[in-house]
Specification:
The structure is a single chain. The chain is mainly alpha-helical. The protein has 2 domains: 54 residues, Arc Repressor Mutant, subunit A; 129 residues, Orthogonal Bundle (Tetracycline Repressor, domain 2). It is built from 10 helices and no strands. The chain starts with 7 loop residues before the first helix and ends in a 10-residue tail after the last helix. The relative contact order is 0.09.
Length: 196
């Protein structure tokens, strides 16, 4: 990975490359993307591309590494000591915000030509954090029960993310986190009228 000064021009160039790359990944697998067509779409020359990346796979690796770092930061509250009352919505809002901030990569990852291994890495990162947290807060649950719960919930959250992406992510990360939590905790009961 080449070191590049982090000035405004560098950020703009990297943004143009990322935008063009994500557009191409929506249409075809990474193996079918050439640097020539990427540079043409981004409006840059090949030399500029090679100033920032060694090849297409390095580009993808750096984009995924940046999101993993953001995802790790979003999950830090899951690692912190939970002296205050357990608040799943507050914890998951940061995660949904990270997904929103990386919506282009999420769209591609969940699409036909996405990196399914990358999606599994995100899910497994969440599993490790949630297992420890849920076992701490739900002492009557067994590790196996928590594993099954997490498998069910993570699948539902991926479907929720797809729907959110399809809707243009117009809802806030907090609204989606609240919706996810209510569905997880109350199921269809969330739609029943509340008694006054």
């Amino acid at each position: 990975m080449k070191k590049v000064t982090n000035d405004h021009r560098t950020r703009v160039t990297r943004m143009l490359i990322r935008k063009a790359f994500m557009e191409l990944l929506r249409q075809k697998p990474i193996q079918s993307i050439s640097i020539k067509e990427l540079c043409s779409l981004a409006g840059i020359n090949r030399g500029t591309f090679y100033t920032h990346y060694t090849d297409i796979h390095d580009l993808m690796g750096q984009i995924e590494a940046e999101m993993l770092e953001d995802f790790e930061k979003a999950m830090e509250p899951l690692l912190a000591s939970q002296e205050e009352p357990f608040n799943p919505v507050a914890l998951s809002t940061g995660i949904f915000q990270c997904l929103k901030d990386n919506s282009d990569l999420c769209t591609v990852t969940l699409g036909d030509y996405g990196d399914k291994q990358f999606a599994m890495r995100l899910i497994n990162m969440g599993r490790e954090r949630c297992m420890a947290l849920y076992l701490k807060h739900f002492k009557d649950a067994t590790p196996k029960e928590i594993e099954y719960y997490y498998a069910f919930v993570s699948g539902g959250c991926i479907a929720l993310l797809r729907k959110w992406l399809d809707d243009g992510m117009t809802s806030s990360a907090n609204e989606i986190a609240e919706m996810a939590e209510n569905i997880m905790l109350y199921g269809l009961g969330v739609f029943k009228k509340k008694k006054a």
